[in-house]
Amino acid sequence: MRARSKPKGPTEAEKMRVLVAYKNGDDWKLVAKHNGVSVTTARRVVNNGHVNQKPRGGARMGRSKVTPAIREALERYVDQNCSYTLTAMKEFVANDFPGTELSLQTISRHLIGMLYTIKAVRIEPVTCNSDANKTKRKAFVEALLQHQQEGDYIVYYDETNFNIYCHRTLGRAKKGQRATLVLPPSKGPNLQVQCAVSAEQGLVCHQLERGSIKMAQNAAFVEEIYQAVTSSATWDANFQGKKVVIVLDNAPAHSQTEQRVQPHEDLVLLRLGPYSPMLNPIESCFSVLKAHIKRFLASRTNLLFERREFNSFLESRMRLLEEAARESLPCITQSLVIREAIFCQRNVEKALRFEDMSYGM
């Protein structure tokens, strides 16, 4: 069995013998030699008057400017308004704690230590989580769950728009240079994309519109959704005798939809509660669609400056936007809709519990 090696350096007992010999007036160097303590270590023990090493590193007591009270104040400032700058918080600390002057780097370091990071600011309307709107949100969820239990065919419907300025917000460039994308001086008119999706079919139907969508056009598209669902093989095989439930939001174009749409006994229009995009799977589908559209336009930027065979640049650009939409719409697959519907189901449970929602997707 191997013998245990002696610990590196002298022990506290050995150094204590040296210190006691010094205090008694004996030959402390001789004591150090017989105890295996180097002259340098022995001299340090004699000069310091103790054998224990003082703790190294960490905050020095009585010298740290950022006290626990200041850390709590920093956290309170950020929770009060997430857009406060470091300079503003520096002034707040100087006012709340007279005589304390913190640098911007110190404030930033302590915020990072408290797990605060820089993020894009999202606007949340003050009425988003009011009791009235949470009540309407809960009523929508209860109706939706009832239709799901009855086995009805649920379709989510909405519209989105984009123009020639639809591009990626991040790019690459050499250090010290800007990532620049040259585009025409005007955005031009928007192209509206109306879509209806379902977990049973994926993309049910779609329609492209130049400019704004009127209420009459919206009602006509709702009828198109109904006809597309009831004429599908999925409906004939699994949903005979059930209802078509079309979920729509409260956009201006959706006003008077109940009065304008052609009535059917098996058609139900179910409106989302106010400020409830987190309960509509099509919103996330639109995010995927926009990503594909940006990819399509990124490789064809040169066509924005060519009139091609059309009578005007405007017509050429609108045709390009329509081509981008048609080429990108197949990305809305059944698996995508199912995935986003499952994701929204977590928010459905929150709405049932009358919890606050994070506005936006």
UniProtKB/TrEMBL annotation:
Q: Domain Tc1-like transposase DDE spans what residues? A: 154-295
Offer an example of a GO molecular function term for this protein.
nucleic acid binding
The record's annotation in Pfam families points to:
DDE_3
InterPro entries recorded? Homeodomain-like_sf, RNaseH_sf, Tc1-like_DDE_dom, Transpos_IS630-like
Q: Which domain of life is it from?
A: Eukaryota
What is the name of the protein in this document?
Tc1-like transposase DDE domain-containing protein
Q: Which organism is it from?
A: Aphanomyces astaci (Crayfish plague agent)
Taxonomic lineage from the root? Eukaryota, Sar, Stramenopiles, Oomycota, Saprolegniomycetes
